[in-house]
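Researcher: Please translate sequence to structure tokens.
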Amino acid sequence: MPAALEIIKFYYDYKSPFTYLALEPACRLEETHRIRFRYLPFDFNPRGAYGGELEQRSERDWRKVRYLYLDVRRHANARGMIVRGPQKLFDSSLAMMGGLWTDHHGKFRPYSDRVFERFFKRELNIEDLSAVMALMHEIGLDPAAFRKYAESDGPGEVHASFAEGERDGVFGVPTFIAAGEPFWGNDRVSWLAKKLDAMGLRRAAQ
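Model: Translation complete:
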């Protein structure tokens, strides 16, 4: 009987460029290690992190934002990805409901890959229900069923995930929790791999 997979928590937010950078390399760990990710939305709060609304930010806050996007683009350019800074502060709760719902139906990656790529190309409004429903149709899920979920269980499930993140001490995304140990940031995926190796979870070479 194959060994049971270790569950690793992966906290994410679709408006986080660093989560976009982390998604693909992190998911490769499911191929190299005996793990499965549990995807949990957690709100990245740019207002709290970077000085409030756009017009309220100090020059110091803007310097921080400009530098972080410089770093994002360094990582993205090396991988042929496009990351354009959003032109407003988005509410990603609807998109995160989509993440939970598609995960329930085994479609988290095809949905998330599209959301991240199009949002950071400024081709997708993640606050627009009709746009998110169109994505559901594109990946083979029922848009009307998603609308029903978003109007019923979705908000409660998102808030429950936020509450779990608070209990886990999460303060930003992407954050991975492996055996109770947190790893924050796209550049910590390699450290997470070392943790999984130390736990004896690397798959045997085929």
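Researcher: Any highlights?
Model: The chain has a mean pLDDT of 92.
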